[in-house]
Amino acid sequence: MIRFSEVYKRYPGGGEALKNVGFRLAPGEMSFLTGHSGAGKSTLLKLITAIERPTRGQVWIGGENISKIKSRKVPFLRRRIGVIFQDHKLLYDRTVFDNVALPLVVAGLNHGEVRRRVRAALDKVGLLKKERVYPVALSGGEQQRVGIARAVAGKPPLLLADEPTGNLDPALSLEIMNLFAEFNRVGVAVLIASHDLELIQRLGYRQMVLDHGELVAGGEPL
Amino acid sequence: MRALLIRHVQVFFYSLGQLWRTPWGSLMSVAVIAVSLTLPTALYLVLELTDEISGNWQTGAEITLFLTDEVDDKAAVQLADRLRQQPGIRSVSYVSAAAALEEFRQKSGFGVALDLLDQNPLPSLLRLQPDPDQAAPTQINQLIEQFQALAEVDTAEFDHAWVQRLHAMVAIGQRLALIASLLLGVGVVLIIGNTIRLAIFNRRDEIEISKLIGATDAFIRRPFLYSGLQQGALGGLLALVLVYASLGLLAPVADRLAGFYQSGFTLQIMGWVELLLLPIIGGALGLFGAWLAVGRHLRDIEPG
Ligand SMILES: Nc1ncnc2c1ncn2[C@@H]1O[C@H](COP(=O)(O)OP(=O)(O)OP(=O)(O)O)[C@@H](O)[C@H]1O
Ligand SMILES: [Mg+2]
């Protein structure tokens, strides 16, 4: 699903954020990405969605080399990846329903299909009753679940999450991680960047560890 | 194809809804656009009207040919007959020196003074009415030149030289109206460009998130382009109302003028094509302004 080969990333005016990173994530596999603050976790995820381009090396997503992907093709890459953010990135002037519908509308699905899929996604995260509510009226954990519903609504084969439990208490964090595990069980590949080592140990998935931009553990699939 | 059409219609109404949701900002820019379009249109129509009125005066105008002393009555009548045959002349009348003196005596009240003269100081003359269809300033000028060249004619005069001056001023005015239209058109483009720029910045988050979840540039651009188009077209529509209102104020005055000059013109209000022209021009300018703003500012908003 994901393949990195000798990937380097240097930000203009910054140091090397990623150095010689190489790994694979198989289709349907779930894995955690850990490391100290500034290790390069977010950078790695940004390379996968073409928010940033690698300075050197190759990145393949679903068999397509995206190291030098044309801007015009980027939207279609992103439609195949569901992304969850620490700060949710919801639209606060739209209802829960409209937020979840956004990627489907963007992809040009018809009205009935959008309805059906939004309902299904909200049902999976347990928020079907809140579809008419605005995000401000939701707790942090609920907002994060709306973010997850939006990411999975288009049924992408790959989910990425950057610190999805960063602001949540341990019980809620576990709940969110279990949600990812559920999607993984139905065949979705999942890559989660997280600090929460204790929780990660408990869940027992593969761990990749970044240290100052270098992948020091978990580079090869188990 | 059908799906694309449906999406365009959806975005069209969505943008209209956005206008409705932010009524003050939208109203302001629509009003500014309306005023910008009204000014040159009104100016243009007034000039058009002036031209028409002056044209009417011109048809009532005469050319006077003052004949030389050598021309006697018989020669003058022959010349009159000859000129009558010429195209562009509707009628010619001969006024002998004696008749001219008599006319002058009656109209001026200098009768006693004229009696003191032992010789008639006035020349005999021909009065010509040009054909109204061929009374454009250039055609009149041609006639005058031609008459001036005749041996029998001392001087040829067109008694409404100022009408021609008015014509020249109308032409200058039209040029000015054109320049004003161009400048105000640029103004409309800038106004809408700025409104759209603000709208883009207000919806920064939405644009960024849309890009993150796979929206194409065309998808993001569309509502802003529609918004510019709609604001411009609405401004044009409002301008139409304003133009009508100002013409309504002008109508009684114009009617009085028409009465003075016994000319048959009426205040011509624009026809259907011109009616549509204002919203179309407004819409086109709006679309262009939005297109500039979108091209300039959408690129700046990238997720990072
Ligand atoms: N846009 C940028 N421009 C310049 N340098 C950047 C940029 N983004 C990240 N960096 C640098 O790259 C390095 C890796 O950053 P990154 O955000 O990937 O770390 P991280 O592992 O996600 O950290 P955290 O756990 O704090 O989120 C850091 O040294 C950071 O300062
Ligand atoms: Mg990070």
Summarize the structure.
The complex is a heterodimer of chains A (222) and B (304). In chain A, the strands form two sheets. A six-stranded mixed β-sheet of chain A has the order 6-7-8-3-9-10, sandwiched between helices. A four-stranded antiparallel β-sheet of chain A has the order 2-1-4-5, with helices on one face. Chain A contains seven helices and ten strands.
Report on the structure:
The complex is a heterodimer of chains A (222) and B (304). With 222 residues, chain A is of the alpha/beta class. Chain A has helices at residues 41-48, 74-78, 96-106, 111-124, 140-153, 170-185, 197-203; strands at residues 2-10, 16-25, 30-35, 56-61, 64-65, 81-84, 158-162, 189-193, 206-211, 214-217. Chain A has a six-stranded mixed beta sheet with strand order 6-7-8-3-9-10, sandwiched between helices. Chain A has a four-stranded antiparallel beta sheet with strand order 2-1-4-5, covered by helices on one side. In chain A, helix 3 packs across helix 4 (111-124), helix 3 (96-106) runs parallel beside helix 5 (140-153) and helix 4 packs across helix 5 (140-153). Helices cover 72% and strands 8% of the residues of chain B. A four-stranded antiparallel beta sheet of chain B has the order 2-3-1-4. The A-B interface holds A 46, 49, 51-52, 72, 75-79, 83, 89, 91, 102-103, 106-108, 110, 150 and B 3, 7, 205-206, 208-216, 219, 302-304. Adenosine-5'-triphosphate is lined by residues 11, 14, 17, 35, 37-43 of chain A. Residues 41-42, 162 of chain A line the site of magnesium ion (MG).
